Amino acid sequence: MATQLNAHARNIECSEEEWQARQELAACYRIFDHLGWAESIYNHISVRVPGEDNAFLINPFGLLYSEVCASNLVKIDIDGNTLDGSPYPVNKAGFVQHSYFHRHVPWAHAIVHTHTTATMAVCSLEGGLQPVNFYACNFIGKLAYHDFEGITVRAEEGERLLANLGDKRILMLKNHGPVILGRSIPEIFIQHWSLQRACEIQMATLAMGKPVLVPDEVVAVHQRDLAQGQVPGKLPGQGDFEAWTRRIDKIDRSWRD
């Protein structure tokens, strides 16, 4: 992955490690846009800057995902200070939510929050995600839920977000949308992709009638064997992310700038 992303020369002052992170995050924004997961200029994907305490990259507020590139991502710290001289502001809701998790969850190097129709619909459904399809079985027992409190711009909500996340990696904000935390950009990508598919199929199934629920013991076997479906020799989501990066490169390589 590193060779593929580093093919474009740096055009801002930053470390090689930060440029790598910028390339990967910019690719992720373009992939989300290509897959129809953008929400005008809203929502956010962030990643920690390697080797720097309390610094992370996030999208410039006011730009579409299709306009995000490696050099215009905004570098901020967990207190909201801009570290790279960027002229762009940062969405307050994105900062409040992401900074709290980056501050308090050591393994959360990458975080994504979206408002896709399918995931928001399931977040708004009594009972949330149900074991009604292949992809849903990936997540049964692995999702946390948080009651809707309005737009996430108040720092004091952070304590409740963290408490409700518990030991999970996905927090379903009821009546709102998912927050997915992970160790890398490829990991949160594949988690979002799978969750999106699970929610799309649940919506379609419920629209047709009463779903067939997968028994708990089968869900357990499914989750036990999931790792066997990964690309050999690659980290979770890496094979998928590389494939989609090749796809967006064929469409528009400006994300690399």
TrEMBL record:
Pfam families: Aldolase_II (PF00596)
Matches recorded under SMART domains: Aldolase_II
Listed GO CC annotations: cytoskeleton
Domain Class II aldolase/adducin N-terminal: start-end pairs: 23-203
GO MF term list: actin filament binding
Gene3D superfamilies: Class II aldolase/adducin N-terminal domain
Signal sequence bounds: none
Family: Belongs to the aldolase class II family.
Name assigned to this protein: Class II aldolase
